[in-house]
């Protein structure tokens, strides 16, 4: 998966975007108390990313939960464009997805789009990107995703699972649709042109695999929405349930205004960063604070535009009360940026230490996540002639 | 494989085209005594389709034969778009390919492009086209192609063999190249846009499978040439030998001027036609003869524009001397069309009877032709990380 370049992509430059406006542009719905209460009914409690509206908009989440309640088969789907090592911005939706998986016991289909990242990359070789796909699986393992219920599809190697579905999708999409949806031009390579069929195919794949209509919920950044609009449009004519979505906001990088991005590695915390390096990155980070401690005490800081505060809010402070205290301590000048950063740096370092230990252990059982080790290719299921 | 619609496609309407002109347009080379003598060196004798220049142009055939002589690994590649049952126009290059395989003992890779035919078809379902792929394999078996040396790749089901190569090809082809080469427009579906990567991938596949540079010769109609031009252009940068080609003329249909085509079933002889029906088709066929027997005796016929004569020349008369006698008997009015047709009808019916018996027997061992029953997917060969 990749941040596409559709006609409107404010998130390419901004993480502190007007998410209300994005919802309107994309025609999604804001997450309301209605869906949240429905979710609580099946999960018992609410994840911080729901309580704080980090996941903030959706399409048919209510219908997905109702399908789950009524006993229909349900599945989760998310993914990753494995162009490099994983950073905290990537794992944000995975943390939530793991929580959903734990609470609901449903299978997760996880797509590694090594093909697409190769097509999109200026300089990386296919072999390099394919190797990162395996590195990235280690992060899924370290986050504790259940290998019995987490099925990783590496496009270039597991294409046989998707291609029979992609064939039918491709027939229904013209070049002009692709151009309009993704902003492709005549100088785009034909891999990029074809690729959306594969991202869409995974949304239909569980129905093929299980041989029964399967309701798929996709937790992902809203930048992936163009794919799902096509997936929803085509689903009825291809005989699949419409995939449903829940969209998350993007984790800001440690500088001013942008999302955490591999293009600015000094402002992104990688899961493979040595903890001491990660600490330094946090300590050097931009904040919403005043230029001096004196001014901060006098005027207070602005947590609403502070990537350090956002790190607490989106990942590193589980306790709502403590988060609230931090917010007002900053606002009122009682909390200085140095102290706030030092505490975050320590939490990040602790997280990384544990994550990296689990990550290395996972090398011994990485194959348990690969779909090809668990299921036969779907051609085996299909009746022939 | 399919007759593409590049900018210049006279064969769409005509079988009696100016083949010299086509050679010039495509920048291929006419088959000369030089290549023919070289071929005789390795095959011992010459197939009628070479002696009569049914295979009439090429790209680097001489280099391919020299590679074969010098002991380098060589392979053959051809294919079929399985949109329906096979007719005599389809099997013409397969007959020659079988002969090459017998004489040289090389492996043949045979692509069944069920994906592309589905993308191209207005009305047929994927399942229907996929089923024809298996029907068409029966014809390969009936023609006697050696299952140990004939490896059929059905695109939709054997995609895993091709996709890792197709990924690298797709990155090097822009949309504008595709439009210029194949005449695609913005209303073309994105399956068609992507498909050429798969037809090209098979030309490189033997090198991946055997793990050594493999020289591939493609016997096929000249209408497939646009694919091979791209395949040859890209080969050096992707590290594969340039595929070589030998082009054949198209078998005319039994009416005036067109190639044998599924769009005019009454003028095409299918391998599945009951022999009596095939006889009737021949007897109703257009000829180069005069309107009446009297005029024929007086003025003679014109075998050069006669599809009945072409059937003898291209498939059904092995003996050059007898073919020559038939030609002049027609020209001088000694042979009447009814007699000539009746003899052909008998030969066609005999051929079909035997072919159909072998065809039905082949149902028991069809899987011996499938590449997936013989080789593991190439990802198993590739070193990873």
Please write out the topology.
The structure is a homodimer of 385-residue chains.
Chain A: H1 19-26, E1 29-30, H2 33-43, H3 48-51, E2 55-59, H4 61-69, E3 74-80, H5 88-104, E4 107-112, H6 114-120, H7 126-142, E5 150-154, H8 155-171, H9 175-182, H10 190-194, H11 196-210, E6 215-221, H12 225-238, E7 244-248, H13 275-283, H14 293-299, H15 307-316, H16 320-331, H17 337-361
Parallel strand pairs in A: 3-4, 3-6, 4-5, 6-7
Antiparallel strand pairs in A: 1-2, 2-7
Helix pairs in contact in A: 2-4, 6-7, 7-17, 8-11, 11-12, 13-17, 15-17
Structure, explained:
Two copies of one chain form a homodimer. Helix content of chain A is 51%, strand content 10%. By secondary structure, chain A is of the alpha/beta class. Chain A has two domains: 245 residues, HUPs (Rossmann fold), CATH 3.40.50.620; 98 residues, Orthogonal Bundle (Tyrosyl-Transfer RNA Synthetase). Chain A has a seven-stranded mixed β-sheet with strand order 1-2-7-6-3-4-5, sandwiched between helices. Chains A and B meet through helix 6, helix 7, helix 8, helix 9 and helix 10 of A and helix 6, helix 7, helix 8, helix 9 and helix 10 of B.
Structure keywords:
seven-stranded mixed beta sheet, alpha/beta, Tyrosyl-Transfer RNA Synthetase, globular, disordered C terminus, disordered N terminus, 385 residues, homodimer, Rossmann fold
